[in-house]
User: Fold this.
Amino acid sequence: MSADRFHTIVTTVENKPGVLARVAGLFSRRGFNIESLAVAPTDDDRFSRITFTVDVESAPLEQVVKQLNKLINVVEIRELPPEDSVSRELMLVTVSADAGHRKELMEIIEEWRAFVLADNSKQIMLSFSARTARLDEFEECLRPFGIAELQRTGRVALPALD
Amino acid sequence: MSDNQQMPGGEALVKSLEHEGVDVVFGYPGGAILPVYDPIIDSSIRHVLVRHEQGAGHMAEGYAHATGRPGVAMVTSGPGATNVVTPLADAFLDSVPMVCITGQVPYAAIGTDAFQECDTTGITMAVTKHNFLVTEAQDIPRIIHEAFHIATTGRPGPVLVDIPKDIVDPTNPRSAMTWYTATDADMELPGYHPVTEGDPELIRQAAEMIRDAERPVLYVGGGVLKARAADALRELAEMVQIPVVTTLMARGAFPDSHELNLGMPGMHGNYSAVTAMQKSDLLISLGARFDDRVTGKLDGFAPEAKIIHVDIDPAELGKVRRANVGIQGDCRLVIEGLNHAIRELGGTAVQADRSAWRSTVSGWQEKFPLTYEQSAPGDKLKPQFVIEQLRDGNPSDTIVASGVGQHQMYASQWWEFDHPYTWINSGGLGTMGFSIPAAIGAKAGMPERRVWAVDGDGCFQMTAQELVTASVENIPIKVALLNNSYLGMVRQWQEMFYEERYSEVYLQERVPDYIKWAEAMGCAAIRVESPEEVGPAIEKANEIDDRPVVVEFVTDARENVFPMVPSGATNSEVVVDPSQQHLLEDES
Assistant:
């Protein structure tokens, strides 16, 4: 997938019950596809931040933003184009690590600067945080070892510094 | 009511409605909303007891259409709430200001599948401008104020307020609250800031485009009525001498009798309205949304036209057709701004020469007027003839509320709408059964005005029971029931596009007996079968003012609505009345 197709939209929403359902419902009934979605409170407990990535080839971004703006509980919307923002995503992954491949795996972990969260000699649990495309690449490196479980958070982003 | 007084939430709810200026509530009581119905007894608000909650919703819409004030419906939880989903969806698509209060099971019981529980805010999320689930009695005055604010500002729409029983029930400690008169300063709506003023620079650009256009058309939608902009529109049209089309939602926004008015555009629009848009070099869209019933096949719509698009909802700008100049703002303020900007540029004197355009358009008007053939002796009535007789037998400020189908199109085409807010219909959702309750709501809001519902027999059978409401509540509307014993519009499509294979459209000629039915509901009833009876029957109906009247006109099912742009065709492929079809050959 080409990175430029995916734009990140950061919305500040009122921290009230049902707000996520309003946003998700809007996307489904208007036929917009969400690539990833991350929700968490902000430093101000009246508001939450919903960060999502949309495929701009599947939906006109202008309509997505305008329709979101009509939701009463959406306070602010910022569109972060890939060239003007810094984005990260977190992955937790459990990989097979039997004796035969352990050395090779440990080299990859070191090379990619992933963190070992747990190790029971049969499997290793890792945490890895980077740009979404790097997560994809890291996942491919791990795949030959056998991925037991994998969970990604969806990307979060902030505007780039000047 | 002095602030700081202690009262239960139910009383606060009724006081809050009074504070918002509500004079009528259309409603139906039930378990969860019971505690609110007690203080209603002592309130100045008139409560109209409907016979089905859908009726309450459409009455609130009719009231809002006619008066410009938000309509209010109040129903109980569960089935009461689900029965107003259709009117909410209707009000949402047609931008009707409406506040709906629903009862809910006690807060602690939510999510337990309690008796008459449903997820009302979840169900109505997609069909309301916004909805609220109130969790504390103390929030009631503020949330009611917010609900009315949201319903009536920006692009108007329905707002639902779901109220758990415990916070209104005086026997429950959770209902205790301290009264305060909620004002705008109390509102907590950090994400809601409707923009009403248009950008002056864009308005100036639009004024220049108008000045230079040789084949412009003013494409007027319901937003002009919502913004109370009819006077400003008339000033604009007359200053620049540009022909006007009024969409189904905007009938009456510009007088039909005005020489610049080409009538309704779209699937069943006047030939000259449809064709003028199609050949235009500039469409000035005011509070319209390029609906598929107006544009026909989109990629063949008005191919040479530049677009000026004015709408209070920025999401409409560029949603369907990219505008050359898109102006977010209230139609009245923007049109007034345009009038000012056009005068600044030199006004009437500097407008492009449009004499050729005007003469082309009037040529179409002369060649392709709306037409129908009068019925042959012994044949059933022509529905268009009935509408013409109704139009001629009533004052021009009569309010007409229609259902959905052929009769709706005949009413829109053949009535002459010369005043704003005299035409009420379900345009976006196309809700059959809309007319009778909408007419009742309009009459409740405007009791001094004559109100006719124009209905079909299919629609009538969906909501006729509200005539009981009209009788009992002394809301004397009049119903013109065009009875052709068919679902006429569906029949027309089956005739034209399904090789005359009529599937499930014949309703029955003998049953029901509409006269007996109307009389059983406390109405006067008149049956009309021949053309010479039509005028006298309307006159007689107009003399009866102590109860509702139903006039059943037995009409010809073979009649079809023309002109018609077939579904999926472009507006250049408009089919006119069979008697005019040969004239089309000269036009292409």
